[in-house]
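Quick question, first post here. What does this chain look like in 3D?
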Amino acid sequence: MNRSRPAVALLTAVALAVPAITALSSAAEAADAELARNGGFEAGLDGWTCTAARSVTSPVRSGSSALEATPAGNDHAQCSQTVTVRPDSQYTLSGYVRGAYVYLGASGTGTTDVSTWTQSAPDWQRLGTTFRTGASTTRVTIYTHGWYGTGAYQADDISLLGPGGSTGVPPATPTGLKAGAPSATSVALSWSAASGATSYALYRDGVKTQTVNGTSAVVTGLSASMAYTFQVAGVNDAGESAKSAAVTVTTAASGGGGPSDLPAHALVGYLHASFANGAGYTRLADVPDSWDVIDLAFGEPTTTTSGDIRFTRCPVTECPNVESDADFKAAIKAKQAAGKKVLISIGGQNGQVQLTTAAARDTFVSSVSKIIDTYGLDGLDVDFEGHSLSLNADDTDFRNPRTPVIVNLISALRTLKARYGSGFVLTMAPETFFVQMGHQFYGTGKWGGQDPRCGAYLPVIHALRDDLTLLHVQDYNSGPIMGLDNQYHSMGGADFHTAMTDMLLTGFPVAGDAGAVFPPLRPDQVAIGMPASTNAGNGYVPPAEVVKTLSCLTERTGCGSYAPHGTWPALRGLMTWSINWDRFAGGEFQRTFDGYFG
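> Answer (accepted):
Ran it through. Tokens below.
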């Protein structure tokens, strides 16, 4: 869609057309059926597929509820609904809106798709248009949306009048659901065919996770030693059947994804090893014993696309108390002897890494290996930020990536894992924009125009999930992110961390596609990334909110307004930026972790 605002002349033309719509005879309207489901939003968002939207009780035009949605960034906050219609038939679409640049329209008509809009509606304004379906059209999508950067809008009493389609009846409820012997991460399910079903919706713990055409499915991405409840429903054009009787499966115990000698609950921190900044330099030997994984920040490329990673220790001019190379290497060995893991972290805010070619990939592997071997490190942390990862326009499936920078990174990390063996520690620290935002948007999107970096870490995480030791998403310096409850969550409290972590442990549809679900990670693979102090980054939360987050996710107690989809006592722990900033702030973050898990 072109993001330039429409000409006012078009608005005038639309406004002139509205009286003709309202002049439909009462006899014609009486013959029509109301086809929009929950057009007044009295049942919340039931029947609608929305982004950045919620049901509100004020302002409303009629009844007790209305829709409110807020465009942000590349999202124009659309709510849509697909309706069954008759071929070669006339329909009238109307609704009431408030706000600036609000649209109402229909797509998939089979003839000419239509829309109408208002430039400014300080109070409820009626929008309306008509269309005729094509000779073979049986389904039409109606929608409303705002415009980029223009603020919240409201909609109410959306109506589609016309002859109803021949919908038939929903299928029968499937029976005979059973599970095969589960592995640590997957289970095979099968069931009997249901009369009238053209496909089947699979539910895990009450959440729809995938749709299949046959009477069996293999569910992957499960966590070891966890209980899951499955149900299946039949689907056809008329809707879904009731859910089947439930089957509960407990997955097998398993290792994998990293060394087994990490503690059950680990504290991960970044150590400013190549610079000082306001937190000052901390010698590796002076890092408190509470820190289980120490990420040396940072290894950076010689150029963005070279793949040649160099690790330069902080110079004495910037860090007067920096230790010698010999003392630094001795401190690494001492930490390892105490059971700690010391990694090189690649990237950071200033270290843009783009492996655009096979040559850059091979250089990455050799240069990172040299750093690991020189200092005797335990592994690698991937902290690619900024423009390191983005998706080509034709790269739309996180399960089968095509973009060179993604494919080459996956190949490089697999090579490093194979070179160093099962004890190699592989961690990742993406920002929420590259992971959880993929629930709404993935790459440039179906119509283009979205940020190609959105969700770009998902194919890397997915491809390496069996090799990944820890994923600790940076739950800071983040904009609002939509959770699995279809509500936006913002930094500053436990609910944000709970919602973001729940997405990783429950899994989520990518770009809202129920057929493309990012499977959950094991809880022992997940740590929650938080700033250590107010100086460390936006999104700091005080110790009470940290404890509230951990209690909700591991014990399901003390939860706020967000209810997670499970309880994960095996959650690995916490990550913070940074050890230096925590020490600068008196060790508050470290003490909070020790107090909860100690």
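Residues 212 and 480 are 32 Å apart (CA to CA).
The chain has a mean pLDDT of 89.
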